[in-house]
Amino acid sequence: MIKRAERPRIPALIVLLMGMAGAAGVFGRDAGASDISDNPGKQRNAPFDGRPWNISTGNLSVQYIQASPMGAYPHPGFREPPPSAESLARLKSLGLVADEDYVGWGAVEPEEGHWAWEQHDAMERALHAAGLKYVAYTWVHFPPLWLRNQPKERTLMRCLEHQQEAFYLSIFDPRTIQWYDHFYKNLHDHFGNRIDDVYACILGPYGEGNYPLFVPDWVKMGHCHEGYWCGDDYGMAAFQIAMKRLYHDIAALNHAWGSDYRTFDDVRPPKELADEKFVPSPKAFPTSLDKRRWLDFITWYHQAIIDFAEQSLRTVLKYFPAEKVRMKPGGTGAGINPLFFGTYCPGYAKMAQPYRIVLQPADCQGVIFADKWAATAYQFYGVKECTEPAGDLDENNFVRRMFCDASCGAAQLFTYEFEMHASNMQRYVHLFTGKPGETQIAIYCPTTLYRLGGNLQPTITAAASLRDLCDFDVLDELLIADGALIVPRYRTLVLCQDAIIDSPILDKLEQFQRNGGKIISIGRRALEDVQGHPWSGALPITEVPARAPDKQWLLRLAEQLAGEQGCDGVLDGLWTCRRGKQVFVYNSQKHPVAAKIDGQAIEVAAHSIWFN
User: Are residues 447 and 497 in the same domain?
Assistant: First the structure.
């Protein structure tokens, strides 16, 4: 099992105790939070206005979903009480702006045509009475029982490994979007303008941008596991259509794959996926034909859920204006997600570009490569970002998260532990401007290697060390293909590991060199195209020593980056971000660090942010 930071969970026992405590005590809304009066220096006495950053939290009505007919612990007649008026007033005074209410289709339409909105009406009234925004976080991907039990009216996601169904609606069946439309129309007809913001549902265990994963403590999921989920008839047809569009002629596909299909109707996903123990890796695809066959599949697989997300988004936009619409594309796995998740963050940014909505990725927890991988794409495609950590963060990690979010260009902030971190939000959230730090340095994300199942940890680890030396962006191959790697936007591209790189991307790297860009390799890197041909660049690549504990590679890299925008050049544990005249600095050390910023002597406390 892949371990991943996840949302706070509700134990099953709580359903048996539903009548004994209100929802106000769940997830730290009331219980366990420190009193401001106990530490008057940490929080402001006057109410804090969080509206410029849409500071938000969530997890309302999750017990109601659990107790619904589709829930993990059905309990007829249960309703989850709204938080108390006193607790909501307190949260608003601390700067909370919006609260997410989980609205599950299977809970609100328990019988076909019979809608039960009372649970969410009560939440909406309570939030609005407190002056907070009511946000509908919609779960449409798990159908009501009456639809699940009518196979002729729907298709469920089917795995390739066992040819069995999970209780997720298939993203490949066109009727799924019709069912989504059915839900959103009724949501709008009931609430109208009482909804302040609404999420466009995708898939995954939380309605986000990933394929089925087994998270059984919210709803019943059927046959569900980590794997590949395009085994239904519509999924097979979608793959065949996509390959026909890519190759046009079956002979061309057979030449590229080394296959002998007679027609596109015979084309199937990689045969390896019938084995539940199969793990993709570059060694699992020994020939260039094997690599191309797999790359065509996995690229389509990742894009298929993005295409479905766009259909869902367009459906929601039929009923709600763009300024109210949001989407959760999933997270980064605090690095980069396993292939089977299907959560390709740069692709969601590109998809969302024309629609002017807010994207809210998860796993934003101050892991610099992961945060930059997503945020660089958001900035390049012009998409507003609201960050969300999927799991618990202590105070030090939350402050690091706020620095990373701000320096990446986040505009809004979401947290599940709002009251726990209110003082630090009040102190630092003004740094969330929607603009990233200024840098002309980029780290290359080896996307082709990732899609082949390669381990990107060398790049992720190097990025973490490199942040002490300089600010940087992370360029996924999608961004490079779309023209991001140009001078003067970037002057230096850093390669951190051996990589297999597709030829069109290599052409872009060579063009960057010819236009005056510098490519630096950490250690002597073995670089080749998908066909196995070695690549050394149009011009010589600058090499610095390989990563080692003595940090010589960083010192040599500092020499190469000296004078570049974004480079402070000092290995002191301070992460510096510059935006015009604004400078802010995060101390990653466990002790105070003294430094000079533009001639001003400063001291930055451990795990804190200094700003001018």
Answer: yes
Distances (CA, A) of 199 to 161, 326, 350, 459, 508: 31, 5, 18, 33, 36
Which residue type, as a one-letter code, is found at position 260?
D
Q: What percent of the chain has pLDDT over 90?
A: 90
Determine whether 318 is exposed, middle or buried from the number of CB atoms within 10 Å of its CB (0-12, 13-18, 19+): exposed
- Answer whether 118's CB lies under 8 Å from 81's CB: no
Closest CA to 494 of 402, 566, 405: 566
Residues in the chain, overall count: 612
Percent of the chain with pLDDT over 70: 93
Task: Give the count of domains, the chain.
Answer: 4
Q: What's the pLDDT at 282?
A: 97
Contacts of 290 (CB under 8 A, 6+ apart): 258, 284
Q: Is 197 helix (H, G, I), strand (E, B) or coil?
A: strand
Contact 494, 465 (CB under 8 A): no
Question: Which region, left, alpha or beta, applies to residue 57 given φ > 0 means left and ψ of -120 to 50 means alpha?
Answer: beta
Closest CA to 136 of 220, 75, 78, 207: 207
Sequence-ordered strand ranges (E) for 176-334: 197-199, 325-327
Please say which residue of 298, 321, 343 terminates a domain. Answer: 298
In this structure, are 576 and 562 located in the same domain? no
Asked if residue 545 is part of any domain, the answer here is yes
Cβ contact 76:64 at 8 Å = no
- Domain range for 588 is 572-612
Residue found by looking up tokens 């050390």 in the block: 589
- pLDDT of 33 higher than 70: no
How many other C-beta atoms can be found within 10 angstroms of the C-beta atom of residue 116?
A: 14
Q: Is residue 311 part of a domain?
A: yes
Q: Which of 259, 282, 298 is at the close of a domain?
A: 298
Give tens-digit pLDDT for 309-329: 999 999 999 999 999 999 999
Token pair, residue 118, equals 């009372």
In this predicted model, what pLDDT tens digit does every residue of 348-392 receive, in sequence order?
A: 999 999 999 999 999 899 999 999 999 999 999 999 999 999 778
Distance CA 366, CA 380 (A): 20
The DSSP bridge partners found for residue 564 are none
In angstroms, what CA-CA distances link 372 with 341, 364, 379, 384? 19, 10, 10, 14
Say what the pLDDT of residue 44 is.
54
Residue 28 in this model has a pLDDT that exceeds 60: no
* pLDDT higher than 90, residue 25: no
Identify residue 499 by its one-letter amino acid code.
A
Contact 62, 10 (CB under 8 A): yes
Cα 349 from Cα 382, distance rounded (Å): 8
Helical (H) or strand (E) element with 499: strand 499-500
- The letter for the amino acid at 559 is E
The answer on pLDDT for 7 being more than 60 is no
**Residue 417 shares a structural domain with residue 481:** no
User: Do the domain assignments include residue 2?
Assistant: no
Query: Is 436 part of a structural domain of the chain?
Result: no
Q: What is the pLDDT of residue 391?
A: 73
Helix and strand totals (H; E) in the chain: 19, 22
Which of 23, 9, 134 shows the shortest CA–CA distance to 390? 9
Entry pTM: 0.93
Half-sphere CA count of 214, side-chain side, radius 13 A: 12
- Name the pairing type of β-strands 325-327 and 518-522: unpaired
